[in-house]
Design goal:
about 325 residues, 2 domains, six-stranded mixed sheet, three-stranded antiparallel sheet
Length: about 325
């Protein structure tokens, strides 16, 4: 791993702070995304507060000085929130230019767009990034950059916890499912096969929806809409699912920040080492798994002492796995 320079570290810190301010400004502006206005019914003006894009809402009462004050304060607050968001967005654009100049950009743009769309739908804490793409989070956490050959990948694995409220997640996806959200990012995304777990775009980039193996009696498909992706059950994911999750801000190839939710790096490293030892793992992938595990374990020892490799910290892992690679 190549350590970031002091200038790169400074700009990464600035980017993280701007990202947090931008997310807060987005949340604040979202409170005013639906309007407030007068609505006339039977010759009487009522203050009407919209609650969705279809114009549904509720009446706050007939027009009077108090409700005129409420409307004026609402409109003024909405304008302030929009001005704040505009100002922070401009700062973010400037910071992105600096990040590109300093070669801080790492996360592929398509992946960053997918993760931002999930966050915008309130699903930032629902899916966990697995696979090679998670390494972008760990290198940012460690303050360095891994070798490109350890990172290049044309897919992303999204781990879903089937213990969550499926109906609530489907509602946040507004009836379009995960595939529909991907198509908002890139219209060329399609399900690789009917009711499959994988979506692919015209550039052959793939998104897999995965869950741990479930008991045989739990056979109901995990899907969020009709004609959506159906989650595939993958062996060995239960302890990654149980591992603590961390959120790390990394920088995409255009210089903009993106939040990645990933498992504890110790769990990821040991899972990769375990995968490399599995006879069922594709021969071409096993050496890469081991190389990624070795690199991340080295990062943990030298740059991430706040993740100690001891039994107490790894109690959620199977004993043989927690013992580490042979």
């Amino acid at each position: 791993m190549r350590e970031l320079s002091n200038q790169q570290r400074l700009n990464l810190v600035n980017t993280i702070q701007l990202h947090e301010n931008h997310l807060d400004a987005l949340r604040h502006a979202k409170d005013y995304r639906y309007g407030m206005r007068w609505k006339t019914s039977r010759g009487v003006d009522y203050l009407f507060r919209e609650r969705d894009r279809r114009g549904n809402g509720h009446l706050l009462g007939p027009r009077n000085p108090e409700r005129e004050r409420i409307l004026a304060e609402f409109l003024a607050a909405k304008q302030r929130s929009q001005e704040r968001l505009k100002g922070i967005t401009a700062q973010l654009d400037e910071q992105a230019w600096l990040n590109k100049a300093l070669r801080l950009g790492r996360v592929p743009v398509l992946i960053a767009k997918i993760l931002r769309h999930l966050q915008q739908q309130g699903l930032g804490d629902v899916f966990t990034v697995l696979g090679t793409q998670a390494l972008y989070a760990y290198e940012a956490e460690a303050g360095g950059q891994l070798l490109t050959e350890l990172l290049a990948s044309g897919d992303i694995d999204l781990l879903y916890d089937p213990r969550q409220n499926l109906d609530l997640i489907a509602e946040r996806l507004e009836g379009i499912g995960l595939l529909g959200l991907l198509q908002k990012v890139d219209r060329s995304f399609v399900c690789v096969r009917q009711q499959g777990f994988r979506a692919a775009n015209a550039g052959h980039f793939m998104v897999d929806l995965i869950i741990p193996e479930r008991p045989m009696q739990e056979s109901t498909p995990i899907t969020f809409a009709q004609e959506d992706l159906n989650a595939a059950e993958v062996p060995g994911l239960q302890w990654l699912l149980n591992a603590p999750k961390i959120k790390v801000v990394a920088v995409d190839e255009q210089g903009y920040p993106v939040t990645l939710r990933v498992p504890d790096p110790r769990a990821f490293a040991l899972h990769k080492a375990w995968l490399a030892q599995q006879p069922s793992r594709e021969p071409l992938k096993r050496p890469r798994d081991q190389a990624q595990a070795t690199a991340l374990l080295a990062m943990l020892h030298t740059h991430m002492p706040h993740y100690p490799l001891d039994g107490a910290a790894l109690r959620y892992l199977p004993k043989l796995v927690a013992a580490g690679p042979a």
